[in-house]
Amino acid sequence: MQVKQQLLSLKPYIPGKTTEEVKREYQLDKIVKLASNENPYGCSPNVLEAISTKIPSFAIYPDGGTTELREKVATHLGVNGDQLIFSSGLDELIQMLIRAMLSPDTNTVMAKETFPQYRHHAIIENAELREVPLKDGRHDLEEMARQIDDKTNIVWICNPNNPTGTYVNQSELEEFLSKVPSHVLVVLDEAYFEYATIEDYPKTIPLLNKYENLLIMRTFSKAFGLAGFRIGYGIGAPTLIKQLEVARLPFNTSALAQTAAITALEDIEFVEKTIAANAKELEKYYQFFDKHQISYYPSQGNFVFINIPGLSSDEIFQSLLEKGWIVRAFPNGVRITVGKEDENEELMKILAEIVTVKL
Predict the structure, then answer these.
(1) Which residues are in the Aminotransferase class I/classII large domain (predicted)?
(2) pLDDT on residue 321
(3) Can you name the residues that pair with 131 across neighbouring β-strands?
(4) 118-124: Cβ within 8 A, 24+ apart
(5) Which of 8, 69, 6, 102 minimizes the C-alpha distance to 254?
(6) How much is the pLDDT for 359?
(7) What is d(CA 172, CA 177) in angstroms, rounded to the nearest whole number?
């Protein structure tokens, strides 16, 4: 048996260590995981009640057309139901898009330091990668536009960007879209959209009326706290959505996931509280980083990307891990999920100790 040659150059996604693994390895009683950008406040309490009382028959397939959820999301966004496609998390939607649109005779443009699944699945389809380095932690849209040619099928913009938390503003995005040929699909990954509180963050839904080659991706995994249910969605032109539905697996979102998402969407007050708490805790981090000369990017997500001068990202990661704190290391820095107030305060004390030891 032989898989595609390009698969041999890839590695499967490796999640961070579990809390139990770290407990055993370092003989610790308490472990705090701030590595995967999960909502530290969980989800609306109404979700547990809904999945406990509205139990479907598990012998029957879920609603393949996501009828009720589609109606709820369409109303929430002010779009039509035929502009929506649902997926098992955004990872599956990324896979769908790439399977539908990329091949060995095409290319795709993306930032070099961004969500890795764009790159991963493009390689599986043997498409050419055109990766543009970030500029001061932000998408270099001018260079990305220059990389587009007649063989470009998809351009990816992660906004806010994962892992840096930086963002493309309204005017920058509109200027970029005006340069992109109509045959090129621009995918805006807005997984952290709800956390973006800055005034000039793009209002992207209205742009769909002007650009049929635009697809917006959003998810229930982050601000809504439903990562364990795996449910995301795309918003685009009805003609595009209809074509993408061909690449979607039947019954790809479970009945429980649909129920959870519907219920979570009905409790926007809970989401707004978590967003406000996240913004408040981010400001505390910024003050701490400034005081201790830790470099960082201001973030529009529920995470922050840092560097401690004189220490590698692996050294920072390991120092925290040995004290029971799981974060995410990248070649050029460390990403920390913003936790609850007590977690953040304790982590800042540990970071202060690490900085002191380094000095």
Answers:
(1) 30-349
(2) 95
(3) 110
(4) 118/94, 118/156, 120/10, 120/13, 121/94, 121/95, 122/98, 123/6, 123/9, 123/10, 124/4, 124/6, 124/7, 124/10, 124/98
(5) 69
(6) 54
(7) 9
